[in-house]
Amino acid sequence: MKEKISIGILGLGTVGSGVVKVLKNHDEVEIKKIAVKDITKKRNIDGLNKSMLTDNPQTIVEDTDIQVVIEVIGGINPAFDLIKTAIKNKKHIVTANKELVAKHGAELFELAKKNNVTILYEAAVAGGIPIIMPLKLSLGANNISKIAGILNGTTNYILTKMDTEGREFEDVLKEAQDLGYAEADPSGDVKGFDAAYKIAILSSIAFDKKVDVNNVYIGGIDNITSTDISFAKEFGYKIKLVAIGQMANDNKIDVRVHPMLVPKTHLLYGVDDVVNAVMVEGDAVGKVMFSGPGAGDLPTASSVVGDLLCIVGDLLLDNTPIPLMRCKQRNGAKHLEIDNTRNKYFIRVNAKNVPGVLGDLGTICGNNNINLYNIVQKGVLEDGSARVVLLTEAALEKDLNKAIEEMNKKESINKVQNIIRVMD
Amino acid sequence: MKEKISIGILGLGTVGSGVVKVLKNHDEVEIKKIAVKDITKKRNIDGLNKSMLTDNPQTIVEDTDIQVVIEVIGGINPAFDLIKTAIKNKKHIVTANKELVAKHGAELFELAKKNNVTILYEAAVAGGIPIIMPLKLSLGANNISKIAGILNGTTNYILTKMDTEGREFEDVLKEAQDLGYAEADPSGDVKGFDAAYKIAILSSIAFDKKVDVNNVYIGGIDNITSTDISFAKEFGYKIKLVAIGQMANDNKIDVRVHPMLVPKTHLLYGVDDVVNAVMVEGDAVGKVMFSGPGAGDLPTASSVVGDLLCIVGDLLLDNTPIPLMRCKQRNGAKHLEIDNTRNKYFIRVNAKNVPGVLGDLGTICGNNNINLYNIVQKGVLEDGSARVVLLTEAALEKDLNKAIEEMNKKESINKVQNIIRVMD
Fold it and tell me: How close B23 gets to chain A, by Cα (Å)?
């Protein structure tokens, strides 16, 4: 039995610094080296010894003493190559890199299997919330039918502010950027890419298939207005950026990220601000939910070090830490195309203030197999046009698109201004 | 590498039947024997083969083919002896037995360690919700400072019904018994023992100490009235049976179960009906919450089989499944006595309808170092007495007890009718 396991860390940004701090309390782990861009940079991190630093990451992934490599650089390059080299050198991997796992996970898992090492990546999804390990292990007995989550803190913060303060997207985004909650280029968050990486990863575990993130349908929140939010509120909903992965017919999976109206009765309704949450539905367990901080240095480090300690626990006993990986992902997933999904819809229309508008809208919907659940005309705008909101029952997306096209051509209707899917 | 692992199951009640059903989907496990009381009893369980049944549990715990024993009998006898024999015969254990783990866990863990086998017990706390494994593994990097949970579905159902329908405890309890949500002898649930076993187990893991369930302070919900609930509601609270384990000063732990007023802003506020939830606070992660079904055949079986598959995954690779246990529990916990805890309180008083009552109450509190946050007199009852409710700031429990004693002696006060602690 060993006493200590030597590790190397690639990257010393926000998460890397958190990892060093958290590891101070764990004697069984010895940080041998940390790869940074600039060795001379002043750093004030509790537990950091300057002699650990190197600006040559290659020396870490090739170091024969190091048994586990933690990758917290992020992005594809150079993380991908470094991890591949580390695996070939028989090192176990802990990574927080959602983009890399979502885009190249299958390849990495295969390489890891061939080299008899494990890759853990709890921190890649939902920061500090334990979700990957519970999905693989505690819920391992279930056939998972659905995962639905709020997986991006930045957009949840923006939508919460828009809801509670009645402000517009651009205005809140700017504030979030000033506060450091949103990046200077916010597209990764607000256009839904970040959440898409995460739901691709969760879906690949839950359904045990290779999920290509390019097949994930992605919609952002940048077209959500305070008008949409206040109508939604009136009907008893909040608008949230929801990531969904679910089994569909013919063994297809339906994986997507887009804004949705979430009803008061839903578990995700109360998940506000920067909080993340994941709801999992399985044949044995029913519905369980996990919520907590989806980002931040220490919460993310909590997941990274949690993974590390799992591997270290096995290594100290000369065990092979393979079972924790438990991802076969033998087959590529077949995806249900968004056109063939069935959804309820919230449709906001700008119409002429003339008799027959509601009738026209109802007729178009009816002709396209869409049952209306609610149709409301709300006052007349300054320019004399009328604002109409429709809530539909579940309908086929391609029928909906046809109806929208017909609405936009209709004399009495100026324009369909927004279409947002509605959660059950 | 093996292909299949042979297991035995002790007990075929609600949970046992669920386990058999769930195991139908898992080829890597072969149920060799199931111990039941009555072999001749008619059973209609998908996946059950009559030839598996035995009425001699001893043949399971001594069977040399069987590598893992699932115990779902419940209670101390004969489960305790059977598990001990199974461990001595080098079998790994999966149990759903909260009472046994809470009362004799430390002894069993030691015996298991000596025999190089593991004991997993995810199902013993919060049914289908993954909490033990995430606490041990994913959150393993944290120093846990607090766990707070709603761990008993029956009492949560009763309190929710009392709250939403304005009914009294006895009335709702009877209905819950008729519906099968509460047992004929409901004391294990309503007096808080069930939740106490569970918080003792969680605290022993979180704080890595032997927690003796006899040192857990326990209060039930049988003295909660609809009057308490409606006052609580008026102040913005729900009353819930809360289980708490937290670190206190001098390395003591404060572990208890009792009703509390939960504020709207708290994560547990929205946890209603039979749902269970556990909030965990750690130095790195901050606050995370887990919620879902706390009971039921299939949810509980989800946790049992989840544990089983963890062990099986290791056994198939000839690994030693020890690390999953990861409970050192070297030292017995020192408990903070309830008298020395600090809490906010809700105090409901029946007073004479005379001038000076509020002054008397205020003076008594002030003399005992208790700051009042709110004091309300609400109408006059039919018998001419007045109803007064006090909300205090955090105060020492022994000061509170002294104040209550003085109130009960005071001329202007008929009786202190209920005292309920208030969550922050």
Answer: 8
